Amino acid sequence: MYFTDRGIEELERRRGEEEVTLAWLAEQLQVFTDTHPEFETAVERLATWLARLDDPED
User: Fold this and answer.
1) What is the DSSP track for 34-50?
2) Is-contact 45 38, C-beta < 8 A?
3) What digits encode the pLDDT tens for the residues 26-53?
4) With a threshold of 0.85, does the pTM exceed it?
């Protein structure tokens, strides 16, 4: 198990039944990068990957 898997599993366990909008998620990612700018690149890559999931060219 990777270290990040624990965080993902905790997220699923604690909030897995909730429904959120992508606008809410985008806002939370922005708050996170404002608080932790050292993770800006990783969050940017995740957001871009999520945004392009259905893009056949990517």
Assistant:
1) HH-GGGHHHHHHHHHHH
2) no
3) 999 999 999 999 999 999 999 999 999 9
4) no
